Structures are given as C-alpha cells and as structure tokens.
C-alpha cells in the first residue's frame, strides 16, 4: 500500500469518526479543526472603525469647531456646521457601499443630529431671548419625537429593526418621509438651513437683532443706568465681554442681511413641514407603545386566568 493511500484511509477514518450515525443524528461532518479554521478565517472587525462611523466622528469634530466660532464668527461657523450636516448623507452612502450598516452607526448619526441642532437652537435662544420659549419647544419636540420613535421601533419592531423602516399602514406620512432618501435629505437639509439662516440674521438684521445702544432723543438726556441706550460708554455697561449685551454689540452689522433672508425664506416651508413630521412621529410612536402595553396586559391576564 502506498503512502498516499495510507494517508487517504487515515483521513477517511478521521472523518467517519466525526459523523453522527445514531438513529436521530444529522450525519453532519463537523470537526474541531474545521471550527478552529472557520474562527481564524472570520475577520475580527472593529465596528468603531467602520468607514461610516469614522465619518460620524468627523461630523462631531466639525460640529464642535463650529460651536467654538459660533458666538462671533458667522461665516466660519456656518461653513463648518454645513459641512458637518452634509456629511450626514455621506455616511449612509459609505455604509451601503462597504456593507457596514450598524446599529451603533445609526444611533451615532441620530444623536449627532439631535445634539448639533439643539446647540444651534440654544444659541438662537440667547440671541433672541423673547423667542427663547419657541426655540426651547423646538428642541424638546425634536428630541422627544426621535427618542420615542427609535424606542418604539426597537421595543415593538425588534432589536434588528431600523427606525427608518416604517410601514405605510402605520403612518403614510412617516413612510413617505423615511422611504425616499431624497425626501429625507431635502427635509433635513432645509430644516438645518433655516436655522442657519436665522443664525446669520442675528449678525445682520437690524429688524431682528437691533443694537442695544441706539441713539435716543436728546430730551431724554443721558443716564448712567445700566442698560440705558443713551449711556455714552458701552464698556462700562457691559464690563464682561461675554455678557449677552456685549455679545450682541459684537455681532452687530458683521454682514449684509440679504442672503440670510433669502436662505431663511426659501427653507421656512420645509422647516414647518419637518416640525409637522416630528409631531406625527411623536404621536405615532406613543400610540405604538400604548398598543404594546395593552397587548402585554392582555397576555398577562390570559396567563393569570390559566
């Protein structure tokens, strides 16, 4: 018998020892060596270093940089903030191209969106204190609707269910919003563009952000009372350069207001639509969770009755 034949018989004997030939067996050849080989061949992937997630980290860095320039540098801030928002579309393309869609990436993307928008609205609240309640309401609506929607999707639809997969029977509005990438991109982009326009108007519009030191008729005289527009020395009014009054003075007349008004006017209808979608999303998610609660209570009663 040749050496090759002996090796073949030995291999056949090894395989036959690993076949389950019992009456209820599956007759499947599974060896420890095969398992170890499969484990070695299976790549040890690092989800945190997936391309779309790296893009997500870049968005965070750009957003933080835009916040640094936000108080007094509108052009630099708007550029950095806009690039961060536009990368939101690129990470989805990268996830599909490299087959690297992950739950971590989806959550990272949503958290980044919510936090950056909230930070911009916080600034607008400080720029226009009279409208602070409105901006606070928009922050609350944005956070609440997306949190409720994602929680309802994960708890009711399953851990592997994406928050963007909405059945048309549950909500026609949300189905149209999430089903089309084009619609989703336009709504999100123009919603952010509206708030960027408002941000630029806080530097340029004398209608929305008048200077704190406006000349008044001479008959009223000069007063040393803090906050009086007639006070002759602005630095004595706002000793701290980071006070609200000093920041408003520093923002005054930094740029022309024409294009900010155009940006705000064009994007305003889409922003209103986006807030309507947020309301629908909040209501639908609440009802979905309530349906789950009722189903669980019904099941619990049935178990108790048996």
Keywords:
single chain; 306 residues; mainly alpha; Four Helix Bundle (Hemerythrin (Met), subunit A); 11 helices; 69% helix; globular
Question: In words, what does this structure look like?
Answer:
- InterPro entries: CDP-OH_P_trans (IPR000462), CDP-OH_PTrfase_TM_dom (IPR043130), CDP_ALCOHOL_P_TRANSF_CS (IPR048254).
- Pfam families: CDP-OH_P_transf.
- This is CDP-diacylglycerol-inositol 3-phosphatidyltransferase PIS.
- Keywords: Lipid metabolism, Membrane, Phospholipid metabolism, Transferase, Transmembrane, Transmembrane helix.
- GO terms for molecular function: CDP-diacylglycerol-inositol 3-phosphatidyltransferase activity.
- The protein is an all-alpha fold.
- The protein has a domain of 203 residues: Up-down Bundle (Four Helix Bundle (Hemerythrin (Met), subunit A)), CATH 1.20.120.1760.
- 69% of the residues lie in helices and 0% in strands.
- The chain is built from eleven helices and no strands.
- The longest helix is centred in the C-terminal third of the chain and has 48 residues.
- It is globular, with a radius of gyration of 30 Å.
- About 13% of the residues have low confidence.
């Amino acid at each position: 018998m040749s050496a090759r034949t002996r090796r073949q018989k030995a291999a056949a004997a090894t395989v036959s020892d690993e076949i389950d030939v019992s009456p209820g067996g599956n007759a499947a050849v599974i060896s420890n060596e095969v398992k170890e080989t499969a484990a070695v061949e299976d790549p040890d992937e690092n989800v945190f270093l997936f391309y779309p997630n790296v893009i997500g980290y870049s968005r965070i860095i750009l957003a933080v940089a835009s916040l640094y320039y936000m108080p007094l540098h509108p052009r630099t801030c708007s550029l950095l903030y806009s690039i961060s928002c536009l990368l939101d579309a690129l990470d989805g393309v990268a996830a599909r191209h490299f087959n690297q869609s992950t739950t971590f990436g989806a959550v990272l993307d949503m958290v980044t969106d919510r936090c950056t928008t909230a930070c911009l609205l916080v600034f607008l609240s400080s720029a226009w204190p009279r409208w602070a309640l409105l901006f606070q309401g928009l922050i609350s609506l944005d956070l609440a609707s997306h949190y409720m929607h994602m929680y309802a999707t994960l708890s009711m639809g399953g851990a592997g269910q994406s928050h963007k997969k909405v059945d048309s029977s549950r909500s026609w509005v949300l189905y149209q919003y999430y089903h089309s990438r084009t619609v989703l991109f336009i709504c999100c982009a123009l919603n952010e563009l509206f708030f960027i326009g408002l941000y630029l108007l806080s530097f340029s519009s004398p209608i929305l952000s008048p200077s704190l030191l406006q000349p008044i008729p001479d008959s009223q005289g000069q007063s040393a009372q803090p906050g009086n527009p007639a006070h002759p020395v602005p630095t004595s009014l706002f000793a701290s350069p980071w006070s609200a009054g000093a920041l408003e003075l520093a923002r005054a007349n930094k740029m022309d207001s024409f294009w900010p008004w155009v940006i705000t006017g064009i994007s305003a209808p889409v922003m209103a639509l986006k807030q309507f979608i947020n309301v629908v999303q909040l209501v639908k998610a609440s009802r979905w969770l309530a349906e789950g609660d009722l189903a669980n209570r019904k099941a619990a009663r049935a178990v108790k009755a048996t």
